[in-house]
Amino acid sequence: MSEPVKLKKIVETLELANDIFSSYLDKKTGEITSIPGDAYSVSQGEDAIMADVEIHASDVEFAKKVVEDEQRYVALPSQFDIHEWEIMRDFSISREDEDVSQALMNAIHGSGAFRYFKDKIFELGIRDDWFDFRKKTLYNIARKWCERNDIDYINE
User: Fold this and answer.
1) Which residues in the chain belong to E strands, given as ranges?
2) Are 7 and 40 in contact (CB under 8 A)?
3) Domain, as residue range, for 117
4) Which one-letter DSSP state was computed for residue 20?
C-alpha cells in the first residue's frame, strides 16, 4: 500500500456496519468501498436475495474485482465481527457505580436488549460516555484488524 490508511476512515465505516453492505479496503489506494452483499451473488450469475436493495452495475463490477484480487481488497470487519452486544456488556461492566452497572446489565438481556440499553443510557445521563466507549472500542477493533492484515495505519 502506498500510504497508511487512517484509522478514522475505518472507524467511520465500522460505525455504519450492517448486514446489508460489505466494506473493503483497497490496499493499493487506501480507499474504502461499501457495496450491497448481493452484488457478489449477482457477479457470480446468481439471483439477489434482498429485493429491496438496489444493486448498481458498478457494485457488481467491484465485487468481481474483489473476487479476482483477494490480495488487493480486504474485507473490513462486519457487524458480526464487531459484536455490538459484547461492547454494551463491557460498557455495563465498566461502570463504577454498581447500581448503574446492574441497571445496564439488566437492560441487555432478553428481547429488545438494544432498545432497552439505549433507553437506559439516556435515562441515566451517560449517553456521551457510551458513545466515547464505543468509539474507543471500534478504534481498537480497527487497529487490530490492520495489524492482522499487515496494513499500515495512522491514528489521527
Assistant:
1) 5-6, 21-26, 32-36, 73-75, 153-154
2) no
3) 81-136
4) S
